[in-house]
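Exercise 3.2. Students should predict the tertiary structure of the chain below and write it as structure tokens, then compare their answer with the key that follows.

Predict this chain's 3D structure.
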Amino acid sequence: MEPFRVHILGCGSALPTLRHYPSAQIVEVREKLFMVDCGEGVQMQLRRCRVRFTKLGHVFISHLHGDHCFGLIGMISTFGLLGRTATLHIHANELLGDMLRRQMDLFCHDLGYDVEFHPIDAARRDTIYEDRSLTVETIPLCHRLPTCGFLFREKPSLPHIRRDMIDFYNIPSSQIQNIKQGADWTLDDGTTVPNSRLVTPADKPRSYAYCSDTRYMPELYRQIEGVSTLYHESTYGEDNLLMAQKYNHSTARQAAMVARQAGVGQLVLGHYSSRYDDETVLLREAREVFENVRLSNELDVINV
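Answer key:
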């Protein structure tokens, strides 16, 4: 099965701490790299997690709070110093476009590659990226300014060839693709070998939903139903429920309620408030509602 994993670069919230970096992740799908949010310090974290900068093609910014985008101009500049030539695509609220162009005019002379900006409407569910194996959709969220999450979803793949049966029936390699597409095979004596004997079922498509920042949304589960892995902000515990309501954030328990309603495979918590020196209290609260949950930490690699 091709890799589909998430590299956690930062899982803290707005106030810097010595324990966590601001929000940033790399989603790795079939050797392609996508960045979700780009907080300060992202360049150092990219070095530490040993991903190849040159493979990063698209950056998705959930909203225009600094802890989700202050690392962007520095990363763009560094890519130029490293000799990048491939276009970098930035997907974000349209207000970032003008600001980014001004920053690049000031700091990024002779960059050596193009930066292409794609405005997104955080209030609308939309497919903002698609290739042969993957789609990326926006997930409208509710925060203090326009905010969306992102849903990475594999497209269905073809079934697997049974090499033992191909060899047994002496089927030429030129027919492999036809068989993957569902064709039967006819022997010289006219006997038909059904396709079901020649293949095994395709891998189940995997999906990853990133939901940060947002207040608790009881209806959110409808947008992410059945995803393999959900990353949902858990800024606070129930001890700070009023703070969560005031600042349009979620508690760990509320994140677990979304995961349970959506029937996700696993829940990953993150975007921790600096109030917590030990996030295990958040983990305990979430596990009272949904069993398969884990904390995120910097440099974690999570298999979707």
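Discussion points: DSSP finds eight helices and 18 strands in the chain. The CA atoms of residues 215 and 246 lie 9 Å apart.
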